[in-house]
Amino acid sequence: MSVTERRRTSARRDSLLGDEAGAFASARFVRITPMKARRVVDMVRGLPVDDALALLKFAPQAASETVYKVLESAVANATTTEDLDRNTLVVSKAMVDEGPTMKRWRPRAQGRATRINKRTSHITLVVQPAVEKGQK
């Protein structure tokens, strides 16, 4: 296969979407623990985009602001690069992976020190057009 015949898609897009229509966005090295971010991401998985954005806007969790921005970015990617209709989009995949952990030291009694782990997350959201009940 020559260079001109190759498809112009990234390996990341192929692993997330394959040949299906849709778009994704990710935020890497976010300074929030993956466990806290997963609580928020689990709330929006499978929801229509407008419902998910409304839910995130008023969610009390700290991670909801970051997930809101990532979801807005994914919707913008879908509408501009893929020419998909915003009203038909659904959050099909949502995942939070663990990023690098920053290690810090906290002084304790009698000259000792304990380690503080400041964890980071990689948040990825995939939006795809909703599948009608007659299909698939």
TrEMBL record:
Role according to the record: This protein binds specifically to 23S rRNA; its binding is stimulated by other ribosomal proteins, e.g., L4, L17, and L20. It is important during the early stages of 50S assembly. It makes multiple contacts with different domains of the 23S rRNA in the assembled 50S subunit and ribosome. This protein binds specifically to 23S rRNA; its binding is stimulated by other ribosomal proteins, e.g. L4, L17, and L20. It is important during the early stages of 50S assembly. It makes multiple contacts with different domains of the 23S rRNA in the assembled 50S subunit and ribosome.
PANTHER family with a match to the protein in the record: CHLOROPLAST 50S RIBOSOMAL PROTEIN L22-RELATED, LARGE RIBOSOMAL SUBUNIT PROTEIN UL22M
Protein name: Large ribosomal subunit protein uL22
Xref: InterPro entries: Ribosomal_uL22, Ribosomal_uL22_bac/chlpt-type, Ribosomal_uL22_bac/org-type, Ribosomal_uL22_CS, Ribosomal_uL22_sf
Listed Gene3D superfamilies: Ribosomal protein L22/L17
GO biological process: translation
Family: Belongs to the universal ribosomal protein uL22 family.
Species the sequence originates in: Nocardioides marmoriginsengisoli
Subunit structure: Part of the 50S ribosomal subunit.
Example of a GO cellular component annotation carried by this entry: cytosolic large ribosomal subunit
Lineage, opening ranks: Bacteria, Bacillati, Actinomycetota, Actinomycetes, Propionibacteriales
One term of GO molecular function: structural constituent of ribosome
Keywords recorded for this protein, A-Z: Ribonucleoprotein, Ribosomal protein, RNA-binding, rRNA-binding
Pfam family, one: Ribosomal_L22
Top-level taxonomic group: Bacteria
PROSITE patterns hit by this protein: RIBOSOMAL_L22
